[in-house]
Design goal:
The chain is α/β, with parallel strands linked by helices. Helices cover 21% and strands 32% of the residues. β1 and β2 form a beta hairpin.
Length: 146
Protein backbone atom coordinates (compact mmCIF):
# COMPACT_ATOMS: atom_id res chain seq x y z
CA UNK A 1 0.00 0.00 0.00
CA UNK A 2 1.07 3.55 -0.60
CA UNK A 3 0.09 6.69 1.23
CA UNK A 4 -1.06 9.09 -1.47
CA UNK A 5 -2.09 12.69 -1.91
CA UNK A 6 -4.24 11.45 -4.79
CA UNK A 7 -4.53 8.41 -7.04
CA UNK A 8 -6.61 7.23 -9.96
CA UNK A 9 -7.01 4.16 -12.16
CA UNK A 10 -7.67 4.42 -15.88
CA UNK A 11 -8.79 1.77 -18.34
CA UNK A 12 -8.54 2.71 -22.01
CA UNK A 13 -8.18 6.36 -20.99
CA UNK A 14 -11.32 6.39 -18.82
CA UNK A 15 -11.10 6.98 -15.06
CA UNK A 16 -12.69 4.04 -13.24
CA UNK A 17 -11.56 4.92 -9.71
CA UNK A 18 -10.19 8.06 -8.06
CA UNK A 19 -9.38 9.23 -4.54
CA UNK A 20 -7.83 12.25 -2.91
CA UNK A 21 -5.65 11.76 0.16
CA UNK A 22 -5.64 8.19 1.42
CA UNK A 23 -4.23 4.80 0.54
CA UNK A 24 -3.61 3.10 -2.77
CA UNK A 25 -3.94 -0.58 -1.88
CA UNK A 26 -2.47 -3.10 -4.31
CA UNK A 27 -3.99 -6.51 -3.53
CA UNK A 28 -2.57 -9.90 -4.45
CA UNK A 29 -4.14 -13.21 -3.46
CA UNK A 30 -1.74 -16.09 -2.91
CA UNK A 31 -2.49 -19.80 -2.83
CA UNK A 32 -3.92 -20.66 0.57
CA UNK A 33 -5.26 -17.18 1.31
CA UNK A 34 -8.74 -17.08 2.86
CA UNK A 35 -11.51 -14.55 3.45
CA UNK A 36 -10.58 -14.53 7.15
CA UNK A 37 -7.00 -13.53 6.27
CA UNK A 38 -8.33 -10.82 3.95
CA UNK A 39 -10.46 -9.43 6.80
CA UNK A 40 -7.47 -9.39 9.17
CA UNK A 41 -5.41 -7.57 6.56
CA UNK A 42 -8.16 -4.98 6.06
CA UNK A 43 -8.55 -4.42 9.80
CA UNK A 44 -4.80 -3.80 10.12
CA UNK A 45 -4.76 -1.50 7.09
CA UNK A 46 -7.61 0.65 8.43
CA UNK A 47 -5.94 1.11 11.83
CA UNK A 48 -2.34 1.52 10.71
CA UNK A 49 -1.09 4.91 11.90
CA UNK A 50 0.84 6.24 8.91
CA UNK A 51 -0.66 9.72 8.47
CA UNK A 52 0.87 12.74 10.18
CA UNK A 53 -0.64 14.60 13.10
CA UNK A 54 -0.08 18.31 13.86
CA UNK A 55 3.42 17.53 15.17
CA UNK A 56 4.38 15.69 11.99
CA UNK A 57 4.38 12.27 13.67
CA UNK A 58 2.69 9.27 12.07
CA UNK A 59 -0.17 9.02 14.56
CA UNK A 60 -3.28 8.96 12.36
CA UNK A 61 -4.92 6.18 10.42
CA UNK A 62 -6.76 6.46 7.12
CA UNK A 63 -9.95 6.47 9.20
CA UNK A 64 -8.90 9.70 10.94
CA UNK A 65 -6.76 11.38 8.34
CA UNK A 66 -6.96 14.94 9.64
CA UNK A 67 -7.83 14.44 13.32
CA UNK A 68 -11.32 15.88 12.83
CA UNK A 69 -12.98 12.73 11.61
CA UNK A 70 -12.16 13.21 7.90
CA UNK A 71 -11.55 9.79 6.43
CA UNK A 72 -9.03 9.22 3.70
CA UNK A 73 -9.96 7.31 0.60
CA UNK A 74 -9.07 3.76 -0.31
CA UNK A 75 -8.28 2.92 -3.93
CA UNK A 76 -8.10 -0.87 -4.11
CA UNK A 77 -6.43 -2.39 -7.18
CA UNK A 78 -5.84 -6.07 -7.93
CA UNK A 79 -2.20 -6.79 -8.79
CA UNK A 80 -1.25 -10.46 -9.11
CA UNK A 81 2.32 -9.54 -10.11
CA UNK A 82 3.06 -8.97 -6.42
CA UNK A 83 3.25 -12.79 -6.25
CA UNK A 84 6.28 -12.80 -8.56
CA UNK A 85 9.17 -15.06 -7.69
CA UNK A 86 12.29 -13.66 -9.35
CA UNK A 87 14.82 -15.98 -7.69
CA UNK A 88 15.15 -18.43 -10.58
CA UNK A 89 16.23 -16.54 -13.66
CA UNK A 90 15.11 -13.57 -15.67
CA UNK A 91 11.43 -14.44 -16.17
CA UNK A 92 9.24 -14.02 -13.07
CA UNK A 93 7.25 -17.03 -11.92
CA UNK A 94 3.72 -16.53 -10.62
CA UNK A 95 3.11 -20.06 -9.31
CA UNK A 96 2.41 -18.76 -5.80
CA UNK A 97 -0.49 -16.59 -7.00
CA UNK A 98 -4.00 -17.86 -6.39
CA UNK A 99 -5.88 -19.14 -9.42
CA UNK A 100 -7.73 -16.33 -11.21
CA UNK A 101 -11.20 -17.37 -10.02
CA UNK A 102 -10.02 -17.66 -6.41
CA UNK A 103 -8.12 -14.38 -6.68
CA UNK A 104 -11.26 -12.65 -7.96
CA UNK A 105 -13.36 -14.13 -5.16
CA UNK A 106 -10.89 -12.95 -2.50
CA UNK A 107 -10.47 -9.52 -4.12
CA UNK A 108 -14.25 -9.05 -4.29
CA UNK A 109 -14.56 -10.12 -0.65
CA UNK A 110 -11.82 -7.66 0.39
CA UNK A 111 -13.55 -4.82 -1.49
CA UNK A 112 -16.97 -5.67 -0.04
CA UNK A 113 -15.55 -5.73 3.50
CA UNK A 114 -13.76 -2.42 2.89
CA UNK A 115 -16.98 -0.80 1.67
CA UNK A 116 -18.87 -2.14 4.68
CA UNK A 117 -16.43 -0.58 7.13
CA UNK A 118 -14.99 2.49 5.40
CA UNK A 119 -15.88 5.25 2.98
CA UNK A 120 -14.85 6.35 0.42
CA UNK A 121 -13.69 3.18 -1.37
CA UNK A 122 -12.87 3.12 -5.08
CA UNK A 123 -11.47 0.25 -7.15
CA UNK A 124 -9.83 -0.78 -10.34
CA UNK A 125 -11.22 -3.69 -12.39
CA UNK A 126 -10.00 -7.19 -11.58
CA UNK A 127 -7.86 -8.61 -14.38
CA UNK A 128 -8.03 -5.49 -16.55
CA UNK A 129 -5.09 -3.71 -18.15
CA UNK A 130 -5.00 -0.62 -15.94
CA UNK A 131 -2.91 2.50 -15.71
CA UNK A 132 -2.47 3.68 -12.14
CA UNK A 133 -1.53 7.30 -11.52
CA UNK A 134 -0.57 8.41 -8.04
CA UNK A 135 1.16 11.05 -6.05
CA UNK A 136 2.97 9.10 -3.33
CA UNK A 137 2.88 11.15 -0.13
CA UNK A 138 6.14 10.98 1.77
CA UNK A 139 6.85 8.66 0.06
CA UNK A 140 5.33 6.09 2.37
CA UNK A 141 5.04 2.59 0.91
CA UNK A 142 4.44 -0.47 3.09
CA UNK A 143 3.89 -4.15 2.42
CA UNK A 144 1.34 -5.85 4.66
CA UNK A 145 1.13 -9.62 4.83
CA UNK A 146 -0.98 -11.90 6.95
Amino acid sequence: MQRVSSAQVLIEGKVVGRIGAGLLVLVCALQGDTPVLAEKLLAKLLKLRIFSDEAGKMNRSVQDLDGRGLRGGLLIVSQFTLAADTSGGNRPSFTQAAAADEGRRLYDHFVAQARASHSPVQTGVFGADMQVHLINDGPVTLMLQT
